[in-house]
Amino acid sequence: MVDVQNDFCEGGSLAVAGGACVAADIGDLLHRWSSQVPGAPTYDLVVATKDHHVDPGEHWSLKPDFVDSWPVHCKVGTEGAGFHPNLDPQPFDEVFFKGEHEAAYSGFEGRTTTGDDLAGWLRTRGVDEVDVCGIATDHCVRATALDSAREGFDTRVLTALCAGVAEETTAAAILEMTAAGVEIA
User: Fold this and answer.
1) What are the pLDDT digits (tens) for 79-89?
2) Distance (Å, rounded) from C-alpha 78 to C-alpha 127?
3) How does pLDDT run across 111-128, given as a tens digit for each residue?
4) Which of the residues 98, 133, 147, 162 is marked catalytic?
5) Is 140 an annotated catalytic residue?
6) Is position 98 annotated as part of the catalytic site?
7) Active-site residue identified among 133, 140, 147, 162
């Protein structure tokens, strides 16, 4: 699950329309999974990524261009950096933090609190297939899915559990992911 944080949902500093709904839908899926409800998807592991900015340099701007620079968001220690409350309870096996002192879009740039990177963490647990969902389809979901495929994982994006910033950039991201061998579901 990619970056389902308060700042990326309605009311946040970098809100994506539909973010809170996606958070609720993911929360429902995670609840059904962790409760082993019949018909729920089966996963061996569930991980999450978080934007985790302390001072990401030019990634933050008072005059953002919304391509390379953005308003202040997901600042460590703020409510905006927290997971959206629709995800409670949070049955994550691990959380990967990214972007402390730089821009970071892919979950594969993230690390655990003990320093493990996502690709290595997954490999040591025998994972070879990855489902990706979260916010935003055309930014961090895209980057995470592309890196997942580059790392050799069979990768699928669950679009019903994603929110994109804009129709045009979301459509372009889906085409790019498909061309890279990512399954779009």
Assistant:
1) 999 999 998 77
2) 33
3) 999 999 999 999 999 999
4) 98
5) yes
6) yes
7) 140
